[in-house]
Amino acid sequence: MSDISIIGTGNMARTIGARAIAGGNTVEIMGREPSKAADLAEALGDGATTGEWGTTPAGDLVIVALLSNGVVPAVAHYGDALAGKVIVDISNPFNSTFDGLAHREETSIAQEVAKAAPAGADVVKAFNTVFRHVLEKGRPDVFIAGDNAQAKASVEAFIKSLGLRPLDVGGLRMAHWLEGAGLITVGLANHGVGNVDFSLAITELPV
Known about the structure:
8-stranded mixed β-sheet
């Protein structure tokens, strides 16, 4: 099992933290507001701890569970405290009308995190194509992207501990297209499906 640090105290932090503990992982919560981090750790129970914002995370995997515009600034703020860590970006940078991505070039939050991260840290994109309550109650496929095979293997092992199936889509450049896939889920929720009780998945033909 894995030692996980979660930067953030919102709904995705709560959901991933709960599934992580249920899967036998250790969880540390790090929030800008210590009281919120303490409240979340207490709610998660089972030995969940808190860490001080900006200090070296206890976990080898550091899940940044913040809104997209806060992810890169948080990683830059942590700086060398993230050296040697695997940083997991779960964000979706949607525009204000939720029909496009906020950035106008072929990049991603994960790729920008990689630029801001210290030497020795690796970045993996994951979880961004899954609605929170589906992650909480279902067994969705989790798509991941990253450049370092060992880092991706660590994230895959963590995802499997949650009872979920990780699916590798390739290098970190593919994070841009994962963010596009996140946008597709919103379009489906608003149009073709008409609700958010679903996730994107891979169906394989029988052998």
